[in-house]
């Protein structure tokens, strides 16, 4: 049985809202291109461009903005105006400057668990933006370490655990993405807690829940985490 000494927390859509910001911007982006193409075509083409560019740009707002500009040029066959491109750039800038809004219960749960557990923040995306969001969140003092990685896969988690001398059997990962936060951690023999967010990016979609009794848990809210850890410790 896993004994939880260290808890890894995902950032976006686990500690603070993120995907809803992207969704709101994409709605405005579709409206900008509505005279050129229908919403489904814009969505499909933008997603394909993002996937093609992931290796170049990585995750985050800056890569999304560059892919949005490329998609707009392609969909309009170069007819998009400089003013419209400027609007897309402004959408990206607004996302980078957006206030950090914590999910319900996050601050209270981290405070409640900090006396008995060590925390590591593990997130992917643009380093400067993630560091900025953490600073704005008011949560930075809770974390003994912050890891911003290019991809959240089994190799990345293994390297983090090794670097911080954390045994898989004493590690719990908490996050909203089955693909990025749960499956790689379970593959290493650690435990994982899935707290779904109401919006999921298509790239993070997974068809079915993992089968890992005693190591995989699913909660409706992060507020349930202290009770889960307390009950697990008593087994």
Describe the structure in brief.
With 235 residues, the protein is an alpha/beta fold.
Question: What report would you give on this structure?
Answer:
The chain is of the alpha/beta class and 235 residues long. It has two domains: 6-16 and 101-233, 3-Layer(aba) Sandwich (Rossmann fold), CATH 3.40.50; 19-97, Orthogonal Bundle (DNA polymerase, domain 1), CATH 1.10.150.240. The chain is 48% helix and 13% strand. It is built from nine helices and six strands, in the order E-H-H-H-H-H-E-H-E-H-E-H-E-E-H. The protein has helices at residues 19-32, 39-57, 61-75, 82-97, 106-113, 127-137, 154-163, 178-187, 225-233, and strands at 6-9, 118-124, 143-149, 171-175, 191-194, 216-218. Strands 3-2-1-4-5-6 form a six-stranded parallel sheet, with helices on one face. Helix 1 (19-32) runs antiparallel to helix 4. The radius of gyration is 19 Å and the shape is elongated. The model has no long low-confidence stretch (mean pLDDT 94).
